[in-house]
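writing this on my phone so excuse typos. first protein, seq and then structure
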Amino acid sequence: MRSSSPVSLLDVELRPGKPPLLRAEIAGDAAEWAARAREGLRAVVAQHGSVLLRGLGLGDAAEAGAVIRRLTTELMSDKESFAPRRIYFDRLYSSSAWPANQPMCMHHELSYTLEFPGLMLFACLGAPTTGGATGVADSRAVLDALPAELVRRFEREGWLLTRNYNDEIGLSYADAFGTADRASVERYCLANAIAFQWQPDGSLRTRQRRSAVVRHPFTGRRCWFNQIAFLNEWTIEPEVREYLIECYGPDALPFNTCYGNGDPIGPDVIELLNKVYEANTAREPWEVGDLLLVDNIRTAHSREAFEGDREVLVAMADPVRLADCAPSVGVA
């Protein structure tokens, strides 16, 4: 018997190199349709890891937000962010401010935090002229394609994220942690297994070790879940990296990743990770009104370079805190 939901697994269009697609047939209010479609859409995301919903006709942030709230259990606030976002409404954000001519590598949102979104939602309010697609990649396929020895090392050691917060490059600690009060920042760090050090100039340096592979909370499948490649110095555009190192030194980059024991990750490893991501990427050009739902643990996402006016509303939902995502040993 067909579900009372207006969508089902049978409605999904599966196309090579494209994310799963569902065409909405709406008669009336989009938010009301979303409420009825919630069960079916959840089943599609559970089955395929992501789904692009086309035909909702979302015209503005208020309409997109109403639909998103009908599809989610709990929206999350952005925290420990690495790039600024504009706030549309409470816990509804713009995509991260990132140069349009530079792609954003595949990553899992907030995978360096101990509590992170289980579901990501992206609503297209303005489509770029060229490029700008939000790609998706199955983290299970990525894990299977990586060399076993490399995976074993990351499973054994985890990965280490180092961040430098100052008022000149990247975000200040006040922007990232939502407060300029040092004591509050220190309490947050201590509660979230983040080692911190205040610098003589008042800036902040942090280090946090996280697991690189986790088990999905519902399926139990091992997933490659991290931001090792995206937040590594070798993914930064070469001329930008050279400029930052010249100005601030190799240890003062706004962010960098290492093996869990602190050893640097070579450019060959980052190149390999990005090649495996690309081989497993599915992408579809945005159309105004589209809504993309992504299982944040099973599926990584990226953003292509683009031209034109691109406006994508982002929501982080359904928080998850996994036991195997906590660091197995303390950070130094």
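second protein below, same order as before
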Amino acid sequence: MWKFKFGAWAVVLMMTALSFSACSDDDDDPALVPPSNITEALKQLYPAAQNIEWEMKGDYYVADCWVTGDELDVWFDANANWVMTENELDSIDQLVPAVYTAFQNSDYSAWVVTDVYVLTYPQNPTESVIQVKLGSQRYSLYFSQEGGLLHKKDISNGDDTNWPPTE
């Protein structure tokens, strides 16, 4: 009986060890360190930014950070120019009333809302983005703050990135 218990524990310990060794170790991936002019630009724009992680999206440096309780993606070009801030909202109810009402009155109101964002730009007006799906169809709907549908983007292919406008 004792041998059976010991054997069972040995199997449990071996399985546990194997399960931990199968996990990938993200610490092996070196963190992106952008040029100092870009990190300085973030500090000037959002002095209270915390928990900053950098990544590249296309030619842009993107800081994923927390500012006063909001998780932001702050985009900079290679010259340290701020091009966009993306703020993911928890709920469609957090949108300005004009956008919420426009969406409720749109052809997409019966679709499932998957994500909601507010995009802020240095030059262009702020936009709200509502990502929706119906079956295998997925769209990003871009609204002005006054509630006008500016454009929609088919994201059924999986690329749901909100890219800065090209000027």
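The domain at 30-84 is CATH 3.10.450.360 (Nuclear Transport Factor 2; Chain: A,). thats all i got for now
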